[in-house]
Amino acid sequence: MKRRLFQAAAASFLFSFSLTCFGESLEGYLMPSKCKSEDPASHTKDCALACKSSGFGLVTASGEYVAFNPAGNKKAEEILTSTDKSGDLRVSVQGTRKGPLLDVESIAWSKQ
């Protein structure tokens, strides 16, 4: 009985810890993985869509590249195709890091 209570308490703690500690709000440039070493400020929508098969990620202000999971790749493609922007691909991303990938919850154009 004590063991089950301990397991339940531990599971509850880990779940709440993962929600509060690993959920992130990141800002940066939306970039395909193939282009992550290019200058993000001069990257265009057309190039991003042409390279979409390599997957997408975010180049943060510190220069870190955070790759998106498959659902995030789909959301990135949707936001790119639904805009008339040709450049300035700065976005805000809500998500949770899972290993080397970011499990993307939402992507929105940055208000900068």
Structure description:
The chain has 112 residues and is an alpha+beta fold. It is 34% helix and 33% strand. The chain has helices at 2-21, 45-50, 70-81, and strands at residues 23-32, 56-60, 65-68, 90-98, 101-109. Strands 1-2-3-5-4 form a five-stranded mixed beta barrel. Strand 4 and strand 5 form a beta hairpin.
Please describe the topology of this protein.
Layout: H1 2-21, E1 23-32, H2 45-50, E2 56-60, E3 65-68, H3 70-81, E4 90-98, E5 101-109
Parallel strand pairs: 3-5
Antiparallel strand pairs: 1-2, 1-4, 2-3, 4-5
- The side-by-side strand order for the widest beta sheet comes to 1-2-3-5-4
Q: How widely separated are the two ends?
A: 55 Å
- The backbone outline, from C-alpha atoms, is globular
Runs in which pLDDT lies below 50 for 5 or more consecutive residues are 13-21
Whole-number average pLDDT?
85
Classify the secondary structure makeup into a structural class.
alpha+beta
Percentage of helical residues? 25-40%
Largest beta sheet, briefly?
5 strands, mixed, barrel
Number of helices: 3
Number of strands: 5
Strand content: 25-35%
Written as H for each helix and E for each strand, in order along the chain, the element string is HEHEEHEE
The Rg value, from CA coordinates, equals 17 Å
Produce a short descriptive summary.
Helix content is 34%, strand content 33%.
Please tag this protein with its features.
33% strand; single chain; globular; 112 residues; alpha+beta
